[in-house]
TrEMBL record:
SUPFAM superfamilies: BAS1536-like, TPR-like. InterPro entries: HLH_DNA-bd_sf (IPR036638), Spo0E-like (IPR018540), Spo0E-like_sf (IPR037208), TPR-like_helical_dom_sf (IPR011990). This is DNA-binding protein. The lineage of its organism: Bacteria, Bacillati, Bacillota, Bacilli, Bacillales. Residues 257-291 form a coiled coil. Pfam families: SpoOE-like. GO terms for biological process: regulation of sporulation. One of its GO terms (molecular function) is DNA binding. It comes from the Bacteria. Keywords: Coiled coil, DNA-binding.
């Protein structure tokens, strides 16, 4: 059977060929060939990061045919779908898919190692820290080069969540000094610094921006980390009174995840300006029943409804 790699630069041709194979296999009751065709089609489609939700749903449908795949292809399916679920923050589904892989894979493969790490981080995001620690320990037993970096980083994040702030900062700073992939470490440090209102440390970290900002944003996780960084930078600029500069970085954050029109950017500016005015009114001791505060609240609600209709709020990190 043909594979995706045999047509490396012709996505449309690949998909057309797989559609032909799928249709033939389905009409002739050839379940193994049907399952394989669906899998290969999914592996091509999932590279279109603008359709992550749509392709995830099509990928999940292949689970109905998993029994007809070889063990190797089942492992590939569980791994790719697990990563896909993680990108979409569907953590329970990520855990389920990765556990299927761990059960199926009797080797000590990199797929198995990454799957255990994704189980760990998914539990972490769900604030189930005991399970996160359990799977982090299992992940630490693998011998791959990427293991120590991820173990050190996750230990720091677990300490942060459990209130061991000074230890977490020291561990994150050490990770930042040692490891090459820095943007996720920077975001974790900024989160801790914000929680401590340590604006001096935030400023010093932001001054090192050229050390950790990358140019290749093709990976969805890397793209999200950069968007989150610019959101954090905007929060800092807003906190020190540079509202216009802050809004520019909020827009930059959102535009990394979505292609924004001028109308979208204008709407984001309106939302942020309304929010700033609301904060100022509260700081001045105005009551929520004051006419100008009520009007501001209604204005902000109207903008949020509008941005929800546009579908932007789903991924606008700085509004969450």
């Amino acid at each position: 059977m043909l594979t995706a790699e045999q047509f490396p630069d012709k996505t449309e041709i690949k998909l057309a060929l797989f559609d032909t194979v799928i249709a033939y296999a389905r009409s002739h009751g050839m379940q193994p060939q049907l399952a394989q065709g669906l899998l290969y089609k999914y592996l091509v489609e999932r590279d279109d990061f603008s359709k992550l939700e749509e392709t995830f749903q099509s990928g999940k449908s292949i689970l109905n045919y998993a029994e007809f795949l070889s063990i190797e292809n089942r492992i590939t399916l569980y791994h790719k779908l697990g990563v896909h679920a993680y990108h979409l923050r569907r953590y329970p589904e990520c855990i389920e898919l990765c556990k299927r892989l761990v059960f199926e894979d009797q080797t000590e493969s990199s797929f198995k190692a990454y799957s255990i790490l994704m189980i760990c981080t998914s539990y972490f995001h769900q604030e189930q820290y005991e399970f996160a620690e359990k799977y982090l320990k299992a992940f630490s037993l693998f011998k791959f080069p990427f293991v120590k970096e991820n173990v050190d980083f996750m230990k720091a994040k677990l300490n942060q969540r459990r209130g061991k702030t000074e230890l977490a900062i020291a561990q994150l700073q050490q990770c930042l000094q040692i490891y090459s992939h820095k943007i996720n470490i920077v975001n974790s440090l900024l989160t801790v610094y914000f929680s401590e209102s340590d604006f001096d440390s935030i400023e010093k970290l932001l001054q090192r921006e050229s050390d950790f900002i990358g140019s290749d944003l093709s990976n969805p996780l890397v793209k999200t980390e950069h968007a989150y960084y610019y959101m954090n930078k905007g929060k800092y600029l807003n906190a020190i009174g540079l509202q216009n500069e802050a809004i520019a970085y909020f827009i930059k954050s959102v535009s990394i995840l979505h292609e924004l029109s001028e109308e979208d950017e204008e709407l984001i500016c309106k939302i942020e300006n309304a929010r700033i005015k609301m904060e100022k009114a509260v700081q001045e001791g105005k009551n929520l029943t004051d006419v100008d505060v009520v009007n501001l609240s209604q204005e902000l609600d109207d903008y949020l409804v509008e941005i929800q209709k546009k579908g932007l709020i789903k991924r606008v990190l700085w509004l969450s």
